Structure formats: C-alpha cells, structure tokens
Amino acid sequence: QENIRIANCTTSAQYFHLLRRQALDATARPLVVMTPKGLLRLKQAASTLDDLSSGEFRPVLDDPAVDREKVTRLVFCQGKVYYDIVGHEDRERATSVAVARIEQLYPFPVEQTAAVVRGYPNLRELVWAQEEPQNMGAWRALRHRLEESKPEGVPLLYVGRPWRASPSEGYPTAHLREQDRIVRAALAPSALSRLAS
Description:
Elements: E1 5-7, H1 12-24, E2 31-33, H2 37-41, H3 49-53, E3 60-61, E4 73-77, H4 81-86, E5 97-102, E6 104-106, H5 110-118, E7 125-133, H6 139-149, E8 156-161, H7 172-187, H8 189-195
C-alpha cells in the first residue's frame, strides 16, 4: 500500500537526491536502497557537482544517446547491469536499441515509465533485463507493471538467467560468461527471440 520505498540508484546524484527527498518528505516511510559496492567506485556512475547541486531524484532514467525514430527495442533494467549493457562492445552497433533504467522499484513509477515508452514511436519490443535468475530479482514484482506501460501489440520479453535455486553462478568465470550472454541477448534481436519468455 505504498508504505515503503525501494530504490536502486545508478548514479551518485540519484543517490544524493533520493536521500534528500527521504529526509525532507513529511510522510515518514521506510526506504530500502539496493546499491552494490561496485557502483561506488565505478567511474561511469559518478556525477558532477552540478548534478548534485541541482535537480531531483528521477524514478526512471531514459536513454540520452539514441535516435528515438530508429529505436525498435527498449530495454528496461535496474542497477549495475545497466553499465554492463551500455559498456559492452556490441552497444555501439545496436543503434535500434535504447536502454532505460528503473531507479525506483516501489512504488512503481507507472506514469514516468509509460512516458518513456511513449517516447519511442517505432517500438516493436519491450525488454526487461536483469542479472538475477528469473525467479529472483525485480522481474516477478514488476512484470505486470511493465505490461501496463507498454503499447498494445508490443511484446514484453525477459532477458536474464533462467530459474535457479542459487542466486549466483558460484564461479567467477561462469558468472562473467553468463553476464556476457545476458548483455548480448539484450542487445541482439536474434538472441532475444531465442531467450524471451
């Protein structure tokens, strides 16, 4: 009943504005922030002083570097996997793919998400990408919300690890191999059609 907030910030400015909003909000609600330590040291996740001194927390961050008319696939994700996708060697060639981030998982930003989706007039696929197994992570909680945000006739696809009993691979090399597969599937149409559920 929206009595809690859950967020996964991908930039230091987003984290700052989230904490500021939490401190200034007259409605006291618990805040759960899921941010991996790796993002604290990641250069791409850094923000400028200008980003910190102005602006506000944004529940959804759109892709700033795409030609909206060319985009046919919109990939939504949250957290660190965003940097894996946009930093991958295949990203430059994937000109028909936009990558957006859901920064606030609960309460789900329905209007902001729908506004991002509407910004792509030639959309043919909406994708949720996550590094967690399909029975873990945000997919199961957000799927119905993403369904509500997409246009009629546009399929919602899942890209990530299959259902598992364990949250991780347990072996660094296997983890990196699987992470690379997930990112390639998010960026490549042929892989998407094979892995979608």
